[in-house]
Amino acid sequence: MKAWQFTGTHQPLALNEFPDPTPGPGEVVLEVKAAGLCHSDVGVLEDEGWLALLPVLPVTMGHEIAGVVTAIGDGVEGYAVGDRVGVCPTGGSGVAPGYGRDGGFAPLHRVPAIDLVRMPEGLPFDLAAAGTDAGMTSYHAIATIGEVKAGDKVAVIGLGGLGQIGARVAVVKGADVTAVEINEEVWPLAQEIGASRVVKDIAELAGGDFDLVVDYAGFGTTTAGAVDAIRRDGTIVVVGMGRLEATLNTRDVILKQARILGSNGGTLDDVAEVYALFASGEVEPQVATIGFDEIPEGIERLKRGEVRGRLVALL
């Protein structure tokens, strides 16, 4: 089979051919139906810092994967050929597809069964792929770490592929959501999601006494502004990595007894919760689809900032 593989930083993806995978003990092989593209794919191709996460090269990229079970290894219970599943990239195996092992930019994918999440009936494969990382990460930040609940006053910073899902999850759970989005072209999306209002800068929400602010942008100034926006004993969850440092007003951190929490990835349970929300139609993320041959150009589109929501390759 042919797969899109990473061979080195600043090198284009290579379409390499290698034997079809067979499942080992505790593993299954999937026929990949959909594989999501992510801004971290851009990072891998452009930044040498990602090499520490890639122990073996070349490696097939693609960490957002959904497909159908085609083969089952020894010791696997509870799954059968034909089952529709997604792959949690932070599952029990502890080895992320597309990084520590071959990922989903290929027709077939070998995966430890402990990383699988069943797809609900009626959930399309493109949404299932997006739900494994973008959905999981969004949900984990706002629901699992942020513990959003009905009646909460919530601000969501950034309405990109993650923030749009997180904001909608908060609305579905009964929170009053204010969206913070610098790109005014995206503002109509805030209304579609159900946000009560949208502002351009978190600084506009200073003194707003928010229960929870989730920073899906993470540009330093956004996190600093969140401190001004929360109430006493309020919570800030930092997800985005637009900048890897922030300067905070520690006086307000102390006086407000601010809870500043990081959120990284998620769990199989988070993926399952997202799948249920997607399948019910309560959360409908923006997803654009491309073909297998278009994956390299799709990553370039992400790099150029031309993608709204999530981009998923259908195989």
From TrEMBL:
Stored Gene3D superfamilies: Medium-chain alcohol dehydrogenases, catalytic domain, NAD(P)-binding Rossmann-like Domain
Domain of life: Bacteria
Annotated ranges, domain Enoyl reductase (ER): 8-313
Cofactor(s) this protein requires: Zn(2+)
Keyword set, alphabetical order: Metal-binding, Oxidoreductase, Zinc
Signal peptide: none
Alphabetical list of Pfam families matching this protein: ADH_N, ADH_zinc_N
Coiled-coil ranges per UniProt: none
The family this protein is said to belong to: Belongs to the zinc-containing alcohol dehydrogenase family.
Name this protein carries in UniProt: Zinc-binding dehydrogenase
Organism: Demequina litoralis
